[in-house]
Design goal:
This protein has a single domain, classed as Vanadium-containing Chloroperoxidase, domain 2 (Orthogonal Bundle), CATH 1.10.606.20. Helix content is 75%, strand content 0%.
Length: 182
């Protein structure tokens, strides 16, 4: 009974947070900005980063840059499989489907909400890239936060979808280091 009450309160708070975040995208400029961030987070930004890692690392560290790119691709594939399996097993409807007050400000890439694949990959790629090239933190950390925020603002995810996606991305990134020779 107590657990059920706690979950009900958490669910109510999460729905309130969803409505508050989504309400901000009613302004055209905000909506366009977060749509752009979300589209870049679809993969364009991350694939570009993977391709550029050898150049970012520089001529003297070209081999390390190639290792970084391979590392990011392999971990990204694990993240993708993990995300797909969870989405198809857990089948949580998106907020704009479940909650009347939520406006879908951008078409989703798939049907279900949990976990956020965009956030999972943003955290995963950022976590790995920053070990190889810490100087990218000023770009990658704010962008990762914006990707995560965009998913709630656009009405595509609940905050818990984003938090769990971030946690899974971080775990996959951490575990990936077990397979990379140092």
């Amino acid at each position: 009974m107590i657990a059920r009450s706690l979950f009900a309160r958490a669910d109510t708070a999460e729905q309130r947070l969803c409505r508050l975040a989504n309400h901000s995208c009613r302004r055209s400029g905000v909506r366009q900005f977060f749509r752009m961030v979300s589209r870049l987070g679809d993969g364009v930004f991350w694939y570009t980063l993977v391709a550029l890692m050898p150049f970012i690392m520089g001529v003297n560290r070209l081999h390390e840059g190639l290792v970084a790119s391979s590392h990011m691709l392999a971990a990204g594939a694990v993240g993708l499989v993990t995300y797909k399996v969870l989405k198809n097993k857990l089948v949580r409807e998106r907020p704009f489907i479940s909650l009347e007050a939520i406006e879908c400000a951008m078409p989703p890439l798939d049907r279900y909400s949990f976990p956020s694949g965009h956030t999972l990959h943003a955290v995963l790629f950022t976590s790995i890239a920053l070990v190889y090239a810490p100087s990218l933190a000023a770009i990658l950390i704010p962008f990762t936060i914006l990707v995560a925020l965009s998913r709630v603002v656009l009405g595509l995810h609940y905050p818990s979808d984003v938090l769990v996606g971030a946690l899974i991305g971080w775990i996959v990134a951490r575990l990936s280091w077990l397979f990379i020779p140092v």
